[in-house]
Amino acid sequence: MSDATDARLAAQYEAYPYPRRDPRDEAKRLIVGSPGHLREVDYWVFGAQRPASRPLHALIAGGGTGDATIMLAQQMAREGRAGTVTWLDRSAAALKIAQARAAARGLTNIVWQQRSLLELPGSGLGPFDYIDCCGVLHHLPDPAEGLRALLSVLAPGGGLGLMVYAPHGRTGVYMLQDALRTLAPADETPTARLDVAKRVMRHLPETAWLRRNGFLDDHVNGGDAGLYDLLLNPRDRAFTVRELHAMLAGEGLAVTCWVEPVRYDPVLLLPDPRLRARVEALPPLDRAALAEALAGNVSAHIVYCARADQPAERADFMAEDAVPVTRELSGAEIAGGIQPDGTITLVLDGLRVPLALPALAPAILRLVDGRRSVREIAAALAERGTGAEAFARAWRATFTTLERINRLLLAAR
Ligand SMILES: C[S@@+](CC[C@H](N)C(=O)[O-])C[C@H]1O[C@@H](n2cnc3c(N)ncnc32)[C@H](O)[C@@H]1O
Questions:
Q1: Which residues on neighbouring strands pair with residue 326, listed in sequence order?
Q2: In degrees, to the nearest 5, what angle opens at C-alpha 341 toward C-alphas 338 and 344?
Q3: Residue in 60, 284, 260, 50 with CA at minimum distance from that of residue 160
Q4: Residue ranges of the chain with pLDDT lower than 70?
Q5: For residue 385, what are the contacts with CB-CB under 8 A and spacing of at least 6?
Q6: Backbone angles phi, psi at 366, to 5 degrees
Q7: What angle do CA 158, 160, 164 make, to 5 degrees?
Q8: Radius of gyration of the chain (CA)
């Protein structure tokens, strides 16, 4: 159901299509991220069990200026994967930019649908194997209704990739949204409201939480579209882990991955052995909620999920025919980041996460290329004198550690 606030939201994304993108930049770089990355969809949605040869039909609902659409369509084209990526959004301005980006890349596997995602039920569109909805549900009058609309076109055995805002990492945002509702009322034009916001930002008191919040930069680096989206959005709500879980469970969905998994594991945040024992006794949802509350830096939750009664069995990473694959960094590049003491340190929104890897990890990672199977990697190391048991131990530790940071996954069959 639409309302006056929703009409203002539509007007915002016509005036300031989001995110700000220049189609000429496609010649320089491909923007990649989560959700919607082909490797993640293959693994976290389909458990690396869905054949790469099977056509994949994806829907990017609320696709905006095209980041996820372009990423997925380009990745599929590059790998010769059959199927389509359907961009869907209400904004004509966003459509123009997304189409120009696709044209700049010569992509021909995108279908364009300018309409509301709430019209999906009965639309005749789909069914879709994968549905991506990034930064959209939290703007809708009723996010659960939006989710149901998406589920109405989800194919059996399919899955979703979602991003919704999270409260703690957005500390300061809602205070300023309150202030701007007073100074720049919602019934003024987007241009007039933006002008007020810019003036406020110039004189933001040094105590304002947004100034102290280093986890967000859209209002600084995102141009007019970024500033408007963060501080003047007519409606956005943030979900805690528990709130998101409740909404998903209410629609019969179960999370297959909180991205990155390590961010939702409080064990790393609490090295004290007595606390660790307590944490380890907690059910997974409580652990994830605890990690969110302790770290305080999560500004958005990214999840992959599937129907709770149709979970895709995940391929066994210990199976000899499993094929490990990395995302952007090659195996050799990841190996190069391992310190002499065997640790690799990741910085996630300011949180330093050191992870211990086995001594064989660099040698294993240099052999990971998305084509070699576990058997072939083991055989190559056996030639250098690594016994089967030593390999199995090291492979298990390497995979499980890097899987937690979403850097090492299994390729589609
Ligand atoms: C914050 S932007 C996110 C864009 C893109 N998904 C991304 O993450 O870069 C929100 C988008 O949702 C779209 N949107 C909002 N309500 C919608 C609806 N009911 N149906 C379709 N699109 C909608 C807006 O037009 C806007 O492009």
A1: 408
A2: 30
A3: 60
A4: 1
A5: none
A6: -65, -15
A7: 170
A8: 22
Give residue for tokens 């979403």.
Answer: 406
**DSSP conformation letters of 364-383:** HHHH-SSSS-HHHHHHHHHH
Q: Which residue intervals of 129-208 are DSSP H helices? A: 143-151, 173-183, 190-202
Q: Which two tokens stand for residue 217?
A: 């930069």
* DSSP state for residue 134 in the 8-state scheme: E
pLDDT of residue 271: 87
Instruction: Please enumerate in sequence order all residues whose Cβ is within 8 A of that of 199, keeping only pairs 6 or more positions apart, or say none.
Output: none
Cβ neighbours of 109 (radius 10 Å): 18
pTM for the complete prediction? 0.97
Question: Which atom of ligand 1 lies nearest, measured to the CA of 140?
Answer: 16
pLDDT at 206: 94
Pairing of strands 154-165, 128-134: parallel
Assess whether the C-beta atom of 13 lies below 6 angstroms from ligand 1. yes
Structural contact between residues 40 and 410, judged by C-beta atoms closer than 8 angstroms: no
Q: Whose CA is nearest to atom 13 of ligand 1?
A: 62
Q: Give yes or no for residue 236 CB within 6 A of ligand 1.
A: no
Using CA atoms in the order 149, 154, 157, 159, what is the torsion angle rounded to 10 degrees? -70
